[in-house]
Design a protein that fits this description.
The protein has 126 residues and is mainly beta. The chain has 2 helices and 9 strands. It has one domain: Barwin-like endoglucanases. Strand 4 and strand 5 form a beta hairpin.
């Protein structure tokens, strides 16, 4: 059996640029890529908290420490500068890998600086 599991996420990243006339991708601060464990050219899913859009693209590396989150190409229609987004990558794991898997969770502030990291999502009380 194989399961598709959350590998990592950048939570509440702020879009800094939206470039329509650019080859499709999402440029992400290189330090954020490294911290989350997202590889350049890896498929990512973006969930826009501002408008509910959900879309798939790939990551490219922006300058380390720049705070850049640039949604490019056709996806630029789905996110504007200032929008809060969740950027996720997933991995397909076999049964043996599932027992020890923990995602890499990176929580960001309004300037795309790391507030905290973790490997589990706290359950909200009802």
């Amino acid at each position: 059996m194989q399961c598709t599991m959350l590998k990592c996420k950048l939570h509440q990243a702020r879009v800094t640029h939206s470039e329509l006339e650019y080859e499709g991708s999402c440029a992400i601060d290189g330090q954020l890529l490294d911290r989350a464990g997202i590889r350049e050219y890896e498929q990512i899913h973006i969930y826009n908290l501002a408008n509910g859009e959900r879309f798939t693209t790939y990551a490219i590396r922006a300058e380390d420490g720049s705070g850049v989150i640039s949604v490019n190409g056709a996806a630029a229609h789905k996110a504007n500068p200032g929008d809060r987004v969740i950027i996720c990558a997933y991995a397909v794991l076999d049964a043996a890998e599932l027992t020890s898997h923990k995602p890499s969770l990176v929580y960001l502030d309004e300037r795309n600086h790391i507030k905290r990291t973790g490997d589990s999502i706290p359950v909200q009380a009802a």
